[in-house]
Amino acid sequence: MFQNGTWWITGASSGIGAALAEALAQQGARLILSGRNLDALRDVAQRCAGEHLMLPFEATDYPRLPELVEQASAWAAPHGGVYGLVNNAGISQRSLAVDTAFEVYQRIIDIDLLAPIALTQQLLPLMVKAGGGRIVAISSVAGIIGAPLRSAYSAAKAGLIAYHDSVRAETAHQGIGVLVVAPGSVRTNVSKNALDGNAQVRGFSDSTIDNGMPPETAAQRIIDALTSGARELILAEGPEAMSAQLRRSNPDQLFDLMAALVANGYAKQLGAET
Predict the structure, then answer these.
(1) Active-site residues: which are they?
(2) Is residue 274 domain-resident?
(3) Segments forming the whole domain that contains residue 262
(4) Residues 269/150, Cβ–Cβ less than 8 Å
């Protein structure tokens, strides 16, 4: 699965994507690294042992996808084609729904949901034809619980879970394994780069993110989940993990907790109050 297998990671220039690239390289994988920032991809590639191909592109540049998949497939062909796809690229949000322009929903759903679907749809038939492979979807606890101040992000990440769950059901008999990962707070730039209600980059982080799980720990847990054949990984601890569990076991309790969180000033704490 890892040794000499080719894994394509989107959003590989930082955060979980970069950490997972290093972890996969340590397992002997060949890497295709994608993201918007070529210099950042080069930095990640330098930290990764083994062979790698950099394919920088904008996640929503759909017309380029056939060309990119062709390049990736040609590079991976001597080793059996692209075996693993990690749908990791994304952008978050910090704004109350009542204050959020529709443009925010369009941009986030385009980047976080439609872009990974578009790439998967291009690559999936090739993976099936090759006899199987693995797909990893980096969703979010927000996609399970409907987190406050993240209505667009939660909608996109919930859709990402549902799409990949469907793909898993349809392709398991064809050798495709699908792992959906739902991180909570991981120490990345996700909050700093989040959009506000006017579709502007927020520019500052949250303390929960700054004190979150190290991305290297997150990457190792993903590697462990892949190794064990897991199909879902709640990559969270403490209240975030509890919230994900409550959504399935006692949703009314979760709904009350989320409403109380906002009523007690959560939006002000995150600098998103009107």
Answers:
(1) 153
(2) no
(3) 6-269
(4) no
pLDDT in the model for residue 273: 67
**Backbone phi and psi for residue 14, each to the nearest 5 degrees, phi listed first:** -165, 175
Give the single-character DSSP code of 109: H
Q: Show the tokens assigned to 237.
A: 């601890």
Q: Which two three-digit tokens encode residue 202?
A: 């927020």
What pLDDT was estimated at residue 269? 87
Write down the residue that tokens 């199987």 correspond to. 132
Do the beta carbons of residue 22 and residue 2 sit within 8 Å?
Answer: no
Q: Residue 198 corresponds to which tokens in the numbers above?
A: 């006017």
We report the CATH number of the domain holding residue 62 as: 3.40.50.720
Query: pLDDT at position 62, please?
Result: 97
For residue 92, the 8-state DSSP code is -
For strands 133-138 and 52-54, give the pairing: unpaired
Vertex 175: Cα angle to 140 and 230 (nearest 5): 35
Cβ count near 268 (within 10 Å): 11
pTM: 0.95
Phi first, then psi, for residue 177 (nearest 5°) are: -105, 135
Check: CB of residue 213 under 8 Å from CB of residue 237. Answer: yes
Q: Which residues contact 202 (CB under 8 A, 6 or more apart)?
A: 94, 191, 192, 193, 194, 195, 196, 271
Question: CB atoms < 10 A from the CB of 49, how many?
Answer: 11
Q: How many domains does the chain have?
A: 1
Task: State the 10-residue block means of pLDDT for the chain, 274 residues long.
Answer: 96 97 97 96 95 96 97 97 97 96 98 98 98 98 97 98 98 98 95 94 89 96 98 96 97 96 90 69
Handedness of CA 147, 12, 87, 6 (dihedral sign): negative
Residue labelled with tokens 């969703």: 139
CA dist., res. 28 & res. 60, Å (int): 30
